[in-house]
Amino acid sequence: MGARKRLSSSSEPSSSVVKEDTQNKPQEKLNLADPPIAPPKWGLLLKLSLLLLPYLYLLFYYYPIESELRRSILINAGMSLAGLFVTVKMIPVASRYVQKRNLFGYDINKKGTPQGNVKVPESLGIVVGIVFLVVAILFQYFNFTADSNWLVEYNAALACICFMTLLGFVDDVLDVPWRVKLLLPSIAALPLLMAYAGHTTIVIPKPLVAHIGIEILDLGWIYKLYMGLLAVFCTNSINIHAGLNGLEVGQTVVIATAILIHNIMQIGASTDPEYKQAHAFSIYLVQPLLATSLALLSYNWYPSSVFVGDTYTYFAGMTMAVIGILGHFSETLLIFFLPQVLNFLLSLPQLSGYIPCPRHRLPRFDPQTGLLTGTNDGTLVNFFLRNLGRKSEKALCIYLLAFQAIACCFCFLLRYFLAGWYK
């Protein structure tokens, strides 16, 4: 995470479950004795690339997708792959600059061990955000014409993501109060809300049609309010489901992979060109998100050599929110976010002030055994530890990401069983 412990004695709770503990020291020169960060974990990337096999199977073999649409998806995939390698190369360079500006932290979950004394550069999510935006902007040259109906919404989505990345970096630098963090996504979502020209209707579930009397309901401005609230939830839910090396980026990678598979399934099963374009629109944004996130995960996986900061969690949450909104599958997106929903519900008593909330709601680390013990704080991380027993940080992160993958599979099963009956 990107929040840091300041010299201020304020005990105001933070919406981020933070990983690092950084002192607010005066400006000082970069210590040339500081070792460079560890190299990327390429083996991890090769293993995670297996997650894309179902997507590639559906894209190239299972569904007869039009050649022009497949061509656009492949161009976007190629540019995203280039973005992955650029991100991998830029992170070590950026880490030297952020350390020079004293943007570093100490890993609290390794306190009392030699690794706990290592200065870990943070806010490296800024690299992912910049590369993502460059890839997404350049892709317009290959896919959108000047009179494209989708161009306005595409640029509005990029404006929201850019705005959120900027506000996230500001949060990393200034360490704003958690109550302000809740408002930042509302501000960043304004470009999309103002430019959105799509439908504001919802399809009434078939079991309720007989009782309501209509099949389509136009919500008007309420739909846009819902869009704004979804952006707030997605952004902050990634931000508070954190506290372990690789957890923030890992959950984004799992959800982004599920979104890719969902989109290609909807494209292959539909005959409506407008519906297909909406889901292709989502693919154009989620492929570069997945590629750049994988590059960051190669440095952030246990043991982390960089911290992602609020910059990344805000960027990732906003990106997935606009993907779900403009792809018109917000209900599915919320089921993909089931672990984040549960974490939010567990956190609500503390975030609302009903129960005292410490600044760092992390488990207790035992430097003798290297294991984490769950506390009574309301987070999914502590909930897993209280019920599964003490775990190492790496093992606990794998359990949580496996739960994230199970939630995504549950979403696909739910859609399969409810297809034709619910909507």
UniProtKB/TrEMBL annotation:
Family matches, as Pfam families: Glycos_transf_4 (PF00953)
Function: UDP-N-acetylglucosamine--dolichyl-phosphate N-acetylglucosaminephosphotransferase that operates in the biosynthetic pathway of dolichol-linked oligosaccharides, the glycan precursors employed in protein asparagine (N)-glycosylation. The assembly of dolichol-linked oligosaccharides begins on the cytosolic side of the endoplasmic reticulum membrane and finishes in its lumen. The sequential addition of sugars to dolichol pyrophosphate produces dolichol-linked oligosaccharides containing fourteen sugars, including two GlcNAcs, nine mannoses and three glucoses.
Catalytic activity line of the entry: a di-trans,poly-cis-dolichyl phosphate + UDP-N-acetyl-alpha-D-glucosamine = an N-acetyl-alpha-D-glucosaminyl-diphospho-di-trans,poly-cis-dolichol + UMP
Protein location: Endoplasmic reticulum membrane
Cofactors: Mg(2+)
Biased composition (Basic and acidic residues): 18-28
Molecular function GO terms recorded: glycosyltransferase activity; metal ion binding; UDP-N-acetylglucosamine-dolichyl-phosphate N-acetylglucosaminephosphotransferase activity
UniProt protein name: UDP-N-acetylglucosamine--dolichyl-phosphate N-acetylglucosaminephosphotransferase
Keyword Magnesium belongs to the record: yes
Stated family: Belongs to the glycosyltransferase 4 family.
UniProt KW Cell membrane keyword: no
Pathway: Protein modification; protein glycosylation
Enzyme class, UniProt record, top EC level: transferase
Gene Ontology BP terms: dolichol-linked oligosaccharide biosynthetic process
UniProt keyword annotations, A-Z: Endoplasmic reticulum, Glycosyltransferase, Magnesium, Membrane, Metal-binding, Transferase, Transmembrane, Transmembrane helix
Region (Disordered): 1-32
Bilayer topology term: Multi-pass membrane protein
Cellular component GO terms held in the UniProt record: endoplasmic reticulum membrane
Residue ranges of the TM segments: 42-61, 73-94, 124-144, 151-170, 182-204, 225-244, 250-269, 281-302, 314-338, 396-418
Origin: domain of life: Eukaryota
Record EC number: 2.7.8.15
